[in-house]
Amino acid sequence: MSPPVNRKNSNLYILIFIILLCTACGLLLAIVAYSLKGPQEAAKTFDQSKQMLIAAKVLNHQGEFTLIQEDGSLLLAYLDKQEGILKAVQDKKVAPATKEEIQQLAAWRIRPLLTDSEGNISTLKAHNLSLADYLSSNKGGGYATLPHKLFYAILSNDATVKNLSEEEVAKEMEKVSIIVIPVSGFGLWAPIYGYLAIQRKDADSVIGTSWYEHGETPGLGANITEAWWQKQFYGKLIFQEGSDGKTDFSTGEMGIIVVKGKVKDVFGASPKSKSAVDGMSGATLTGDGVTKAYRDSLSPYRNFFIQLRKEEGNGTQATST
């Protein structure tokens, strides 16, 4: 006759085994997550730099470097690593930029800076802030409503600028060709995060846009990331003209409007069409969210843009464009 089974001890062993297994699995997952944190953050930073360069028309959606011309056309380019500048290619062919080249160009050309409600420019260092901490702490609420608002200065394609510090750039904005404003808001399903690149000289004309994080529906709202949709932003104005064709930079509405349908059908050739882009079929709510994101993200920078215009000798009150 077999000895009786001690079910109490048996259940205890099973419970101990389950606890040990769960602990081991949890520890393993924690180790994996910790080991991947660095690479994940590096990949995230790289993608944001890449999207910033796309918005600034320094990189196209095929991963090729480009040089933007005054008429908005793009010339393919390669990175001259000795001089630290982009140079146009003559045969219309160029190899896609490598990850290392994109990282190098971003380090040479992009500087994160801050501005306040008066339009004054400062550095993160001046406020004892690190960029990583600033970004992670304020991403959810956006940067536009903060006392010190983030923007990125894209330096000119000039060999003399690659070693300029953030402090030097803050004092020499004439070295900057493009201003990139972080844009954030809500689409149909989730928060959306991107960039809007603006000409520094007039602080009004859009160079381009890009989005680096969203949860929109593929083929519908997710089209905000597509080149065919983003290309219509070049030359649009962030300060909306009044019905008389004049712009009041001090009080006029700001933003880019994503219309339902086509701009030509909604606004025709009216002044408002200069600050509007075609919507996306089947994605009206995403378009509304994007419109609100541009307005809410740009309006708090008004005095910053006005200061840039003053430095260039541009007026701020009811001017015709």
Descriptive overview:
- With 321 residues, the protein is an alpha+beta fold.
- It has one domain.
- The protein has a 6-stranded antiparallel β-sheet with strand order 5-4-6-7-8-9.
- A hairpin with a 5-residue loop joins strand 1 and strand 2.
Helix content: 25-40%
**Strand fraction band?**
15-25%
Structural class: alpha+beta
Structurally, how many domains make up the residues?
1
Sequence-ordered SSE layout with sheet pairings:
Layout: H1 7-55, E1 65-68, E2 74-80, E3 85-88, H2 99-109, E4 110-115, E5 121-122, H3 131-138, E6 149-155, H4 166-171, E7 176-186, E8 191-199, E9 206-213, H5 227-230, E10 246-247, E11 257-258, H6 263-266, E12 276-277, H7 284-298, H8 302-311, E13 319-320
Parallel strand pairs: 11-12
Antiparallel strand pairs: 1-2, 2-3, 4-5, 4-6, 6-7, 7-8, 8-9, 10-13
Helix pairs in contact: 1-2
Task: Identify the notable features of this structure and list them briefly.
globular; 3-stranded antiparallel beta sheet; alpha+beta; 321 residues; 33% helix; 8 helices; 6-stranded antiparallel beta sheet
What's the short version?
This protein is an alpha+beta fold. Helix content is 33%, strand content 21%.
